[in-house]
Amino acid sequence: MVVWTDFERATIADIFSKLDYEAVGGATLARCLIVYPWTQRYFGNFGNLYNAAAIMGNPMIAKHGTTILHGLDRAVKNMDNIKATYAELSVLHSEKLHVDPDNFKLLSDCLTIVVAAQLGKAFSGEVQAAFQKFLSVVVSALGKQYH
Amino acid sequence: MSLSDKDKTAVKALWGKISKSADVVGAEALGRMLVVYPQTKTYFAHWPDMSPGSEPVKAHGKKVMGGLTLAVSKIDDLKAGLLELSEQHAFTLRVDPANFKILSHCILVELATIFPKEFTPEAHLSYDKFFTAVALALAERYR
């Protein structure tokens, strides 16, 4: 059972309330595909990923980024039950999508950077710690059903 | 994953901007690391104050940024350029090299907060590669 402090709950809720899921989702996925190009292996039929400009302008990537952020939203709304909330998604990522779970950390690092850029000074060490704790619980839950 | 000419150009270009507030960037990144990754505090137990913004953190952040400025200047041969620093980290400080990745991440986050427009995905890519290369050079003399 993950124990969340009041500060952590408030911080996570606050951060996500400030995010434009479309903009942040698209920017995060694009950044991941650019900074860690091997992650492009999962997006073979997403069109032009030839260079950074193409990736950042790719509408399929933007749309998928939004899907990912909405997926995270489910964890935000079920913070006391993330493992159960993500059981199906975990099976999906393992058995249908065949995503190496190490990639979840890469994407979550990119989300941290995108959120940091948006919040600026407000993204203090304490806020970052809460955000990264949340993401590490998400990452762990997504990897739970792999076997 | 060695540094291309494009990476080196990108690193030097943004470092020009960063070096103007190097002390602040270093202090903030270090302070951030001590809060987000409390296990890193084990290396600084001899400091009277490990809180963000404290004198020891500020002084040490400045030192770290000095080392990175050196690395930027030696970007064409980091192994040779950072040999002395590697020996210091290996034999005197004995910092577990896993922590290089941790501090690198905190510096990247700090760059994103201070330079949101300049820290594009491409700049992020080049800096991630640069810090990885620096970490490798720093670990050179460990064993």
SSE-based structural type of chain A: mainly alpha
Rg of chain B, nearest Å? 14 Å
What is the CA-CA span between the terminal residues of chain B?
Answer: 22 Å
What's the name of the CATH homologous superfamily of chain A? Globins
Kindly, what is the distance between the CA atoms of the first and last residues of chain A, rounded to a whole number of angstroms?
22 Å
* Protein structure class of chain B: mainly alpha
Q: How many individual β-strands of chain A?
A: 0
Largest interface: chains, residues each: A-B, 24 and 21 residues
Largest sheet of chain B, described in full?
none
| Tally of separate helices of chain A | 8
Overall residue-averaged pLDDT value of chain A: 96
| Topology-level CATH name of chain A | Globin-like
Q: Classify the helix fraction of chain A into a percent range.
A: over 70%
The number of distinct β-strands of chain B equals 0
In terms of quaternary structure, the protein is: heterodimer
Q: Which CATH architecture of chain A is right?
A: Orthogonal Bundle
InterPro entries (chain A): Globin, Globin-like_sf, Globin/Proto, Hemoglobin_b, Hemoglobin_oxygen_transport
Family (chain A): Belongs to the globin family.
Domain Globin (chain A): 3-147
GO molecular function, one term (chain A): metal ion binding
Description:
- Chain A: One of its GO terms (molecular function) is heme binding.
- By secondary structure, chain A is mainly alpha-helical.
- Helix content of chain A is 71%, strand content 0%.
- Chain A has helices spanning 6-18, 21-35, 52-57, 59-77, 82-85, 87-96, 102-119, 125-143.
- By secondary structure, chain B is mostly helical.
- Chain B has one domain (5-139): Globin-like (Orthogonal Bundle), CATH 1.10.490.
- Helices cover 69% and strands 0% of the residues of chain B.
- In chain B, helix 2 (22-36) crosses helix 3.
- The mean pLDDT of chain B is 96.
- Chain A binds chain B through residues 30-31, 34-35, 52, 55-56, 109, 112-114, 116-121, 123-126, 128-129, 132, and chain B through 31-36, 52, 105, 108-109, 112-114, 116, 119-122, 124-125, 128.
